[in-house]
Amino acid sequence: MTAIIRRALFFLGLTAFSSVAAFGAETINYVSLVPGEGQLRDKFLATERRLEAGWTVSADVVLLIDGQVGTEESMAATVRRGRAQIGMLTTEGTSSVVAEMSLLMAPYLFDSFEEADFVLDNIILEKVKALFAEKGLHFVQWIDSGWFNVFSQVPARLPSDIVDMRMRAAGGPAARVFLQEVGADVAQLPFADLVPGLQTGLLVGGATNTSMYRTVALYELAPYVTLTRHGINPGTTFANKAWFDAQPETNQGLVMSGIASTSVLRSDVRAEGVEALIYSESKGATIITLSATERAAWKKASTNSHRILIDEIGGETAALYDLIQEGRSAFAAGVSGAGATDSDASR
Description:
By secondary structure, the chain is of the alpha/beta class. 45% of the residues lie in helices and 16% in strands.
């Protein structure tokens, strides 16, 4: 069955059943894009069982996590319109509805996972919840995909090594602006075009997280990974707000439990990132660990990116950015050695 047919059947099903399935069970459609195996998929399956077991009425949780609803942008719109009840999407996907989320992928916005976690959990959370609510969404939890790094078909220790080279940027403005500012020739292509682009010579490389680098076997096509650690992708789990608000407290609690606690999600995803680099290296990848001076060169080259993104994204982005800077200052003041707490540059 093709993806188009699956998608058509999904929307026909939504039209036919509304919020109650044929056999009297409440249907809870949960949308995301999840690898075919691994800890994330296991957590989704466990969530399906937990929601069905604890729901106050008979419930049928439908996991639409294999592309049945199309792109992440389509998924975000589906939850917003109430055709699906819950979604878990990357920052790029969520930002198609909550544009300000794009800022969180800005290059060198955070210096460590610990700093990022502190700011996300303690400083900007209420602001983000309000932004979601304005779009008819209820924020549930942060997710994580580890550091974004540069990968390429040639060694790259400094920005000058990729000047004018054709590099693929992920969706959203932050990835594009970073590569533009460091001097690359940027192609903002769909993910499906990445492998063909590398195979045909259209692309020389790009930027992604290490788990995805392994999953797509990019070590066969672009065997150099430069640990720029220039950005994070703190995606989110969220629900349709009208649907969530109408639920009894017991059901709301089940939804707010997410697919696992945020701390467990972060720990597991970051551990997978380390494992992905080890595995990729065993398959022939060369992992380039930067000196402090070399990493500073990447950071300096992208200095203007924050202002560019604030102006381009608009909305409440400037206010969100100011909150982030306040949070970083608070973290630095409260944690000894805050700038060096994440010592494992492979993550």
